[in-house]
Amino acid sequence: MKTKPHELTATEAAAHIAAGRLSSVQLVQSCLDRIAETDDHVKAWAHLDPEAAMAQAAARDKHKQAGLALGSLHGLPVGLKDIIDTRDMPTERGTPIFAGRQPDEDARVVEMLREAGAVILGKTVTTELAFMHPSDTRNPMNPAHSPGGSSSGSAAAVAAGHVPFAVGTQTNGSVIRPASFCGTFGFKPTRGTIPRTSVLQTSKSLDQLGTFARTLEDAALLADAISGHDQRDTESFTHARPDMAAGARATPPMEPDLVWLNLPFYDRLSGAAQDGFDGVMDVLGPRVTRMDPADQLSELVAVQARIHEYEIVQHQGDVFDAHWDQISDTLKPILTRARKIGAAEYEDALAVKASAESFFDDFFTEFDAIIAPAAAGEAPRFGDGTGDPIFCTLWTLAGLPCVTLPLLVGETGLPIGVQLVGPAHKDDRLLRTAAWVQRHVAAAT
Question: What pLDDT is stored for residue 1 in this prediction?
Fold first, then answer.
C-alpha cells in the first residue's frame, strides 16, 4: 500500500480492513506515528494512551480473525471531544476544575462507537466547558491561526491526519465553524438524532453532537454509527433516522433548488469570503434564489444567546459558584450577565425558538437547502479568539441539519467552508444535495 494508513479516508480504511489488506493495529499505529510527528505544534489531544489504543486495535483484529460479525466502524480510530464521558479515559472538559475527572460510565455515543467496532483513540481538546475561552490547540493549516472552537481538537486532529474522523458538539457554531477553519467536512445532524447522555450539558435545549471527517461520506458514516434513540435524552426522538451515508453517496433525481438569505450580519464576511461565495453563486447559477428574509429571522441570534446563557447557569451553576476563581475572565462576564436573565424572559425565548422551528418546517417546501457561510472568513490569528459563530446560530437554534464543505480559500490560503442547511429529519437529502454542490463546484474549477 503506497498510501500511509493514516492518509486513508475512513471508508477506504474500512474496505481495506474488511478485505484483509490492512489491520486495525497497522492503521492505529500509523495514526499514533502521525500524532507523535505533528502534535507538538498542533496540540489537538487532551488525553492519549498509545498502549491502550493499540490494545483496542489488537482486540478488533482478533475479533475479525475469529469470523465474528463486524460493525460499520470496525477497527477505525476516532477522536472524542473531551466533554464526552469515557469510563477508561479522563474527561476534563477543558478546565482545571475537572482535572483528573474519571467517569464511571461511557456516554451513550461511546457505547455505540464500541458496538460499531471503533477504536477510541483518545480525547480531543475542547475550549473551557465547551464555551468561548480558547484552548492551546493550533490550526494545522497554519499554527499561527486558531482552529476555532469549541470543538478545537476534534477539527484539528482530523485536519492534521491524526484520525480519519472525530466527534464534536455544537450549541452555536462549534462543529461547523472549526471545520471551516481547518478545511475539513463538518456535519451536525438534526437535533435529537445523536443522543447526548453523559455529554457535558451546557444547554438542554440547544446542545447537539456532530462529526468531522476528510470526506462527506465519512462524516455521514460516523453520524450513522452514533445515531439512535435514548430515552434519557429529552431531545432524542423515537422515530427512525435516515441513512445518512447513503444520502452522501446518492445523486439527486433532479438538480436541487437552493436559497441564499441576505441576512443583515452577512456584512461581517471578509472580502475573500464574499468573493468566494459570489463565485460559487455564479457556478450554481439559476439553482440559487436570493431572498431578503423578514427582519425577525436575524433577531433569532439574541434568542439563541438568551437560552444558552440562561441554561448554562441552571445546569452548571453549582460548579461556577464553587470554582469561580478557576473560571476564565472570558467566561465570567457572560455568566454574570446570564444570572440576570429572568424565567419569563427565558420562557419567551423558548416560545420564539418553537416558532422558528415551525417556520422552517414550512420554508423547506420550496427549497432543498439554504446555502450560507460557515464562518466570516479564514481562521483568526491565534490569540484573537475562536471566531464568530453567528453564521451558524439560526440553524442551531432551529435544530436543523447543517454541513460545511471545504470549497473556498481566503486571503492567506487558509480554507473557508460553504455551509448547507436542510429541513429537519431529512439529513440524507441534505447530504445528497451537498454532494451535488461539491461535484458541481469542483467541475467548474
Answer: 61
Contacts of 229 (CB under 8 A, 6+ apart): 195, 236, 237, 238
Sequence letter at residue 285: G
User: Alpha-carbon distance 28 to 309, whole Å?
Assistant: 39
Q: Which of 24, 135, 146, 150 is catalytic?
A: 150
Q: Give the span between the Cα atoms of 418 and 94, in whole angstroms.
A: 28
Quick one: cell of 221? 458514516
Q: Which three cell numbers stand for residue 87?
A: 469510563
Reduced DSSP (H G I as helix, E B as strand, rest coil) percent helix, strand, coil of the chain, to 5: 45, 15, 40
The position carrying cell 479522563 is: 90
Q: What is the CA radius of gyration of the chain?
A: 21
Pull the grid cell for residue 141. Answer: 493549516
At 295 the pLDDT is 85
Which residue shows C-alpha cell 469561580? Answer: 324
CB contact at 8 A, 315 and 203? yes
Of 371, 402, 15, the closest CA to residue 223 belongs to 402
Q: Out of 174, 180, 203, 205, pick the active-site residue.
A: 174
For cell 462549534, the residue is 174
C-alpha cell at 445: 474549477
Q: Do 206 and 174 contact (CB within 8 A), yes or no?
A: no
Is 198 assigned a catalytic role? no
CA distance 291 to 270: 21
In 180-314, where do the E strands start and end? 185-188, 208-213, 258-261, 288-291
pLDDT score of 294: 87
Residue spans of the chain under pLDDT 50: none
CA distances from 398 to 150, 171, 438 (A): 20, 11, 25
358 tagged catalytic: no
Q: What is the pLDDT of residue 195?
A: 98
Cis peptide before 150 (omega within 30 of 0): yes
Q: What is the pTM of this model?
A: 0.98
Burial-class residue 120 by CB neighbours within 10 Å (0-12, 13-18, 19+): buried
| Active-site position among 43, 64, 81, 188 | 81
The model's pLDDT over 285-330, given as tens digits with 9 standing for 90+, comes to 999 999 999 888 999 999 999 999 999 999 999 999 999 999 999 9
DSSP strands (E only) in 267-324: 288-291
Alpha-carbon distance of 174 to 126, in angstroms, equals 10
In the block, which residue shows the cell 464555551?
131
Question: The C-alpha cell of 414 is what?
Answer: 487558509
174 included as an active-site residue: yes
